[in-house]
Each structure stands twice: as C-alpha cells, then as structure tokens.
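PROTEIN DATA CARD
Card holder: Ribosomal protein L1
Chain length: 432
Origin: Lepraria neglecta
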Amino acid sequence: MAPESTALTTKVESGSPYQLDQAQTLRASSALLKHIKTLAQQKEASSSTKNLLTTDPTSPDNFPSEVEPIWLVLSAKKFITDKQQLKPRKVLLPHTLNTSPNTSICLITPDPQRQFKDAIAHPSFPPALAKRITRVISVKKLEAKYHSFESKRQLRDSYDIFLADDRIISYLAKILGKTFYKTTPKRPIPVNLQPPKPREKQNAALPSTKPKKEPTDPKSLIAPPLIAKEIERTLSTAQIHLHPSTTTSVKVGLASFMPEQVAANVEAVVAGLMDKLIAWRNVRAVHIKGPNTMALPVWLAEELWTDEGMILEEDEAAEAKVKAAQKGKRDGGALEGPMDGGEEVLVKGTKRKEIDGAPTEETGAESRRKKAKRLVDEEMSKEMKERREKLRQQKAEARAMIEGKGVVKSKGVDGEEPVKNKKKSKKAIEAV
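Structure generated from the sequence above:
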C-alpha cells in the first residue's frame, strides 16, 4: 500500500505546472464551506443574543452565515503594481455575487443626471433592474450635498451597491474620502455608460468637420437597453483593487454557494489575473479564506523567487557585506567593530573611532564645505585677536592718562612696543 501524500496542494499530472488543478480547487472549496458552516453552528449554539455593540455594517461579526464572503488571496514574489490604482479591474464571474433581488443600487453619473434618469424610466429598460436602482445622482450634486463625514456615512449605509460612470471613477476618491475607500465593500464600481463609438471609415483621408453633438442630444446618448446590459454585466463581475504590495484579495463567493460554484469563480478570477495583471512565474501562492477562518492553499509555487540568481550563498553574502562596508568607508563614516569574518563594519554619519588602541587616520579628504567653514573660522579668530589687542591698547592709554604719564603704545598688530602696565597707588587715585 502506497503511503499517503503529505503535500498541501496537488499539481496537474501533465502540462505546465503554472496552472490550477481543478481537483485541488474543488477540494479546498468544499473544506472551506464545511468549516464555515461548522463555525456558524457553534456560534449559534454558544450565543443566542445579537451583539449590539457592533456598529460597523461591514464587520465580519454582522455577516449571516448565508452571505458570508469568501476571498481569494493571491501572493506574489514581487510587487503587483508600483502605485495605487483608484479604478478597480473587473473580472466576469460565471456565478454572480449579487443574487438578492432586494439589493438597493445608487448610480453616480456625470452631469447632467436627467438623461440617465429618463433612460432608467424608459419602457425598454428592464423593470426588475429599474426597481433595484433607487437613486441616481450626478457627481456635482454629490459633492455639493455630501461634504460632511456624517452625511457621507448616512449615504454609505443607505445603499448596498454603488455604481459610477468610469469617466468619473477616479474623482470620487477625493469626494467620498475614507468613509467609502477605507474598506472595499462600499467602493463605487465602474460601469461603462458611454455610447458605442462608431467605426471609422478606412478610406477617410481628412478628419470630419461636422460640429460635435451636445451631450443632451438623444443620438449621442447610450440606449436604455445597453445601459441595462452594462449594469447587469458589472454586477456579475469581481473587483480587483490593486495596491503597491505583493498581496491582493478578491471576493469570489458566498457561504451559500456550492463548492463547484466557488471553484468556478476561483478559476475565472485567477485566469483574469494571469491574462492582464500578473505572470504565473511571479505568483507565490493562491489561497481561499473566509472572514474568520484560516487560508486554505489552492496553489503553491516551488520557487520562492522569480530569479534564482537573486539567492546568494554564504560566501557571496559575506562578500556583499564587505563591499557594503567598503562603500560606506568611501562615503565617509566610522568603523564600528569587526564583523564575523574579521572585517570592520563602517557606520555612516559617525566619527571614526580608535580600534585596538591605535589611533586612526582620516577616512578621506575633507569636503569643500568643511574647508570653507575652517577658513571662515580662522579669519574670525584672527579678527577677534586683533580686536582684543586694540582693546588692551586703549585700556593702557586710558590708564596712563589717568596717572598723568605719557602713553606708551603697545606692540600689537602694527609692531609697536608693548605698554608697561603699572599698578596705581592709592594716593594717586585719591588725588584724582
């Protein structure tokens, strides 16, 4: 009998190792859903009262077991992106996360908002979707009406989903602030509300001289059925919020899903990530988890680095430390003490110390700034010396005049004879 494998994940039997194993994904999804249901049953059995102290609606303690989210956590070997992107990426899911017909939607549009309200109220717009869109507001009115933190919190708690035209999605972070963008559940989701662009003629030699149509022109607006199609498509997507880090999380399912549904969404999100955002060789691990559970592995990389040449042996690491110490020595610093290999560590920004009781020489030529400062100090000391000598001479002359004698000039800067200082007698002072 063959021994059982202790590996955390399984790889595909044939083909490239840089792909998900469907059996492993399904196994992890089944185990996670089973664990979430077990935790929910234990929580209900231990406590029958609701926690009234929790005020955050997005807190994991407020999630019922049926709508508890399942997250895909992807870890990379290098940064996925260099800067934070306010516009999230979207990946179409085979099983939508917004299954409730009672979900309230707030649509944020460019100015003017009347054209979008008329499109939603049009007979060709699906009534079921129009019933869910309970608020349409333009970005100008949004900024004018909701400028305080309290009003923004009220707006956030009044609706379940926020949709925004992708032309204004990057401006909403400044308007809505951390009330919406501190967490991801209530961030506006971009939706394309622009009319489809007409195909350009291949034989067009000169640009068109016709005046551009105004936004209020019915021909320049998107048709109501197309708006409904774009909104429904956006509601069936998963949003990927990218940050300058090596980890990103994507919501891929709910606790009420079947294991096959979660596995299908995981495969779709991973495929969307690998197509446009990250390469397979840069992926370190793929996990799935719940809000209060540990992460279960779906895929683990065999190499921890994108380039094996980045890994240094012990000798190479020691040599790199020596080179770093020598570089610091050239920059101007001090030797702190011997390293493991007998080398001396140079600490930048400190004075050079004596090592083993022997005085050390300067580490390099003085900088121009130090030389200029030294010259200024020398000139100032010379000037102060001359002033002190002149002051001593003036005191001697004044003392000589008081005693009734001639002034004897001191030999100072001009090379004259020094003044012979004599103590005044008590009688001379009383006579004066």
